[in-house]
Structure to design on (376 residues):
């Protein structure tokens, strides 16, 4: 009798931090995996702003991935600085300065984190330009993944790391994200020390926030002399269209914002009027609380696909912890089914607890208390 353990065919959908972390740890344990992503390549789009990776989740995953020292070489401990600003006066109230050597949650650019993870994988691990159309086949496997380019593959385990609007999620859950009532509008500032020195001085080396209960601004410094500002409003998801504008109408949107923030400090209003280029519309969505599903032995979820929450500084950290625990469970269990059960036994209640804790807290983004929406 052949008692050799068969190597499972594992397909990860989504080449974000969670999916890449999972693939890296699997490969470190000698387990083959492919990652499939709809983007045409790693340079297809800007990866966004900056993230703070926490010592008790994101950094744990990087340690298991063998990348923690590399992370610290790239990270910006000074980015842990946090300022809370008075919206009317533009003055600093609360001010956190990290202590020398503090490493609890240093910042790293999203693009740098993605490159770190991508470059750690074996060549051809990530299959670019593959948009998932459907997950077919029986729940006992094998699963058939069909892509919009007409190709398909079989897999013994499909891992949905494909974010808020996950297509893998449809195989195990009917849940869809719902609008939270809070809208983000992203604005970019480049070469800030020379072109935007007042904003650079106001933000400092980390993040700065201000809010009045209905509106907010959250600014965060990235490497390379960049700052991103998130304009936060309690508004309908289609507020730009309702104003008769499109996202490309920078001047029109700017006029609307300056009117809505007319009682704010002129120093802060420069974050609305002086940005470089177009705004990026990012309405916030969240999954129902709690989000659970019937166990499936051949499909599971991680990160936003499993537990989409408001961007209060936990999303990427939880996604990477999910990825770490799932990869280790696969390495340590005899069957994929046993591994998925063990993983979900921990992940589902943990994410449900976090969802409950943050349910309704999207409004915190508009409070004048210190907050860090680093997963925006």
């Amino acid at each position: 009798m052949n008692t050799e353990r068969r190597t499972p065919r594992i397909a990860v959908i989504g080449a974000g931090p969670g999916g890449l972390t999972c693939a890296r740890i699997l490969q470190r344990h000698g387990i083959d995996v492919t990652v499939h992503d709809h983007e045409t390549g790693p340079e297809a789009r800007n990866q966004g702003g900056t993230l703070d990776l926490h010592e008790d989740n994101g950094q744990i995953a990087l340690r298991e991935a063998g990348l923690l020292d590399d992370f610290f070489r790239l990270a910006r401990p000074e980015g842990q600085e946090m300022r809370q600003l008075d919206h009317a006066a533009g003055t600093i109230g609360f001010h956190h300065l990290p202590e020398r050597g503090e490493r609890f949650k240093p910042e790293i650019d999203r693009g740098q984190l993605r490159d770190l993870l991508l470059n750690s994988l074996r060549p051809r691990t990530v299959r670019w330009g593959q948009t998932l159309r459907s997950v077919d086949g029986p729940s006992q496997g094998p699963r058939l993944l069909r892509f919009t380019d007409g190709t398909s593959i079989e897999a013994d385990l499909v891992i949905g790391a494909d974010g808020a609007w996950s297509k893998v999620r449809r195989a195990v859950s009917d849940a869809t994200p719902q609008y939270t009532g809070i809208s983000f509008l992203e604005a970019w500032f480049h070469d800030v020390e020379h072109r935007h020195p007042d904003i650079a001085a106001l933000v400092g080396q980390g993040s700065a926030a201000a809010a009045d209960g209905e509106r907010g601004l959250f600014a965060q410094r990235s490497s390379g002399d960049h700052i991103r500002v998130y304009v936060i409003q309690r508004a309908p998801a289609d507020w730009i269209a309702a104003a008769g504008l499109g996202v490309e109408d920078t001047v029109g949107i700017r006029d609307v914002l300056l009117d809505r923030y007319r009682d704010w400090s002129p120093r802060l209003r420069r974050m609305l009027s002086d940005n470089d280029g177009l705004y990026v519309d990012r309405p916030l969505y969240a999954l129902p609380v709690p989000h659970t599903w019937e166990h499936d032995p051949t499909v599971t979820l991680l990160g936003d696909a499993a537990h989409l929450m408001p961007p209060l500084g936990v999303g990427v950290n939880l996604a990477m912890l999910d990825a770490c625990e799932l990869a280790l469970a696969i390495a340590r269990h005899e069957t994929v089914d046993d591994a998925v059960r063990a993983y979900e036994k921990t992940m589902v209640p943990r994410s449900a607890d976090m969802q409950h804790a943050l349910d309704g807290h999207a409004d915190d983004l508009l409070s004048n208390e210190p907050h860090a929406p680093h997963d925006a």
About this structure: The first strand starts at residue 10 and ends at 13. The first helix runs from residue 17 to 28.
